[in-house]
Structures are given as structure tokens and as C-alpha cells.
Design a protein that fits this description.
Strand 5, helix 3 and strand 6 form a beta-alpha-beta unit. The longest helix has 14 residues. The chain is about 35% helix and about 25% strand. With about 230 residues, it is an alpha/beta fold. The strands form two sheets. A six-stranded mixed sheet has the order 3-8-7-4-5-6. Helix 6 runs parallel beside helix 7.
């Protein structure tokens, strides 16, 4: 039996995940649990900083005209997708991380980029900048929404679910409870131990990627298909 792969992340990222999944021969259902939208924001003076931290391409996509005030700052980008978005928007890339914002900050050369401006999402995890100063300005939000009809229909049978964040895990569990959909028939594949904790117990299986990226998650899904 071929089990569908349910992808719940915001649409732009979900479509990228879907392309990778289809290349692996997986059946996919895309039905985002979040919609991304800009928010009104006012940023500090660019001259007060010596680097700009971007942890999502959404900051570039939804930040608006005010982003132009920060073109002079070198960008510290988390991941290739964010780096590409920043480069295409005209920024100079100084550093590109491979996993998380915290890992990127930890890997910076001591004494470099003493005062960093982080253009973030409205919901974001705290980062420890150590001896550096890190100021955070939210420029977009991911708004949680109800499970859509496609997801609900998919979840009537055994399904593999990709969960990219702790917030997504909590929203999914809340929606499953609201709709009286049993977790015990479904397989959850999550980004990290933190996401696994948020997803909780009661799944048919719960698997954690060995690194927080799509390829690792899809490897779990492919492995599950091969075992069943």
C-alpha cells in the first residue's frame, strides 16, 4: 500500500518539499497549516549595525520597501534558500549557515559582527548571541489556520506527515484533537528533538531527522515506504 505524504508547511516551502518528494517517487498532499503575511514594522538605523541576520527567505519576500534601508549591511543567511533570496534581492552575502540561526552565530569568527540586526518572523525562537549584540525586528508572520479539506481527507487513511517546526506540531495536534482524528494510525516525521517533544506521544510511529532539513525528512519517509 502506498501511503500519502502530507506536507503542512507554508505554501512556498511546501511546494519545494513536494518537488523533492515527487523526485523520490512519493505521493504527496500539500495543504498548509500556516499562511505567511507581511506585518507593519519600523527598523532602527542601518549605521548602528555591522551585519544583518536572515533566518528565512520570508524576511526578504515579505519585508517590503523598508528592506532598502539595509542594503549596505552584509548578510548572515541561514541556509542556501535564504542566501539565494538575499543575493537575488541585491545583498552581499558574508556567511551562509547550514542548519540553524544559533549554529550560524556560534560559528562566527570571534570579534566579527559585533552588532547584528535580525529581521525575523513574529514567532521565533530566542537566539544566544554571546558577547555580540543582537537586536530583533519582526517583519512577517506565519498565521496558523485550520486543517484544510485535502488534509482531512488524506488523514482518513494511514498517512506519513512531515512536521517542520514545534509550532506546526502543536497546531497539528490541536487540529487532530478538534476533528477527533486519531494519531495512532499516522506516521510523524519531524525536524528535530524539539519538534518531536511538541508532537507528543500516541503516533503509529514518530521519527526524528538526523539533521534539520528536507532531505533528511524525506529520507525518513522513503525508508518507511521501503519497510512497509
Amino acid at each position: 500500500m502506498i501511503r500519502p505524504l502530507l506536507i503542512l508547511r507554508p505554501l512556498a516551502g511546501a511546494l519545494q518539499t513536494e518537488r523533492r518528494a515527487k523526485d523520490l517517487g512519493l505521493e504527496t498532499v500539500v495543504d498548509p497549516l500556516f499562511t505567511v503575511e507581511p506585518i507593519a514594522w519600523t527598523g532602527p538605523a542601518a549605521e548602528d549595525y555591522d551585519a544583518l541576520l536572515l533566518t528565512s527567505a520570508n524576511a526578504v519576500k515579505y519585508g517590503g520597501a523598508q528592506l532598502d534601508h539595509y542594503r549596505s549591511l552584509p548578510v548572515l543567511a541561514v541556509g542556501e534558500k535564504t542566501a539565494t533570496a538575499a543575493k537575488n534581492a541585491g545583498w552581499d552575502l558574508a556567511e551562509t549557515g547550514v542548519s540553524s540561526g544559533q549554529h550560524l552565530l556560534d560559528q562566527l569568527v570571534a570579534g566579527r559582527y559585533r552588532h547584528i540586526l535580525w529581521l525575523a518572523g513574529e514567532q521565533h525562537s530566542a537566539l544566544d548571541a554571546g558577547e555580540r549584540e543582537l537586536d530583533t525586528v519582526p517583519v512577517y508572520r506565519s498565521k496558523a489556520i485550520a486543517l484544510g479539506d485535502r488534509a482531512i481527507a488524506c488523514l482518513q487513511t494511514e498517512t506519513m506527515i512531515l512536521i517542520h517546526s514545534a509550532r506546526a506540531a502543536r497546531q497539528l495536534v490541536s487540529e487532530l484533537d478538534r476533528l477527533h482524528i486519531e494519531r495512532g494510525r499516522h506516521h510523524a516525521m519531524v525536524f528535530s528533538a524539539k519538534v518531536a517533544e511538541a508532537a507528543g506521544q500516541g503516533w503509529r510511529s514518530l521519527s526524528t531527522a538526523d539533521r534539520p532539513d528536507d532531505d533528511a525528512l524525506l529520507s525518513l519517509a522513503t525508508g518507511l515506504c521501503q519497510r512497509q
